[in-house]
Design a protein that fits this description.
single chain; 10 helices
């Protein structure tokens, strides 16, 4: 039997595993209850939307037709309502989002504009965006925004490493405003081009046009020195070790949120004190794709 992790509530997610991307060759799907390593399909309208299990699924046909995954997507999204707002309300209901500011920003930046067409944008799941990259699950975006909120005030500078589809960079830009600076760095040129198109359709479009939001092709491990130092740095892939360039580009008083580790990973919160010293704490266990070179990522190694 495959090993699995059962998360029966948002409180469990808050203290257990938070997934941006499933393990290589691993599929992610939802189940209300796990008993003896068998998944019980639930159809109750009271099903907790965040109750989930992560395991290896040998049969890809599970994701077709009337599978639980797509029934969950339908249940999550609802009908006749703003689905992005519904997603946020669920994140609030289960205690993931507590900040009014984060609520406002996530309501303003529609996640549906930043995912591949035809994919279930409002399900709390990471999803592939091509090139062996993913977009994080909504609860991970919400958690990172809350961890960085104090360093995303108007006029501040923010760096998003591994900016992918541009979603979190757009959120940063709206939080720091036109007097601030939000920079996304992504080493896949096709993703950068796509992310710019995504932002142009979003509420952050004026900031992109005015230049306070910018998206660049580059090796995010080296940061983006042009607009350093940064009050907030977010890294969307797991580093074996924290890149020194990113620590150097973090402003005294600033904060970095970065997953660290190889197979076993922790989301680290790194604060640079005003005297330049560094403090680090682990927020939670996670599973992200690796922070690596463009060539290695494309090869999937």
């Amino acid at each position: 039997m495959p090993s699995s992790i059962s998360l029966h509530s948002l409180s469990a997610i808050a203290y257990g595993f938070r997934y941006r991307a499933p393990l290589k060759h691993t599929s992610l799907f939802y189940s209300h209850q796990l008993q003896h390593n068998s998944f019980q399909r639930q159809t109750s309208p009271t099903l907790p939307l965040f109750s989930s299990s992560f395991c290896r699924v040998p049969n890809p046909s599970f994701f077709t037709g009337n599978s639980l995954f797509f029934r969950m997507e339908h249940f999550w999204s609802g009908s006749g309502v703003n689905r992005n707002k519904g997603m946020i309300e669920q994140l609030q209901r289960y205690g993931v989002i507590k900040s009014q500011k984060v609520t406002e920003i996530m309501e303003t930046v529609d996640r549906g504009l930043f995912v591949p067409e035809g994919t279930p944008a409002y399900v709390d799941s990471p999803m592939s965006i091509g090139y062996n990259a993913t977009i994080s699950a909504p609860h991970m975006h919400a958690m990172c925004l809350e961890l960085l909120e104090d360093r995303l005030q108007p006029g501040m500078h923010a760096l998003d490493v591994g900016s992918g589809t541009g979603y979190l960079t757009a959120c940063f830009a709206l939080m720091v405003g036109p007097q601030g600076r939000a920079v996304g760095v992504e080493h896949i040129p096709e993703l950068v081009a796509w992310s710019i198109k995504n932002v142009e359709k979003s509420a952050a479009a004026p900031l992109l046009k005015e230049g306070s939001l910018s998206l660049h092709v580059g090796d995010g491990r080296k940061g983006w020195p042009e607009h350093a130092p940064y009050d907030a740095i977010h890294v969307g892939a797991a580093a074996a070790d924290v890149p020194q360039d990113l620590i150097d580009q973090l402003k005294p008083g600033g904060r970095m949120v970065i997953p660290v580790g190889t197979f076993f990973q922790d989301l680290k919160v790194i604060d640079k004190k005003l005297d330049g010293s560094i403090s680090t704490r682990s927020e939670t266990s996670v599973r992200y794709v690796p922070l690596t070179s463009r060539e290695a990522q494309i090869k999937g190694t």
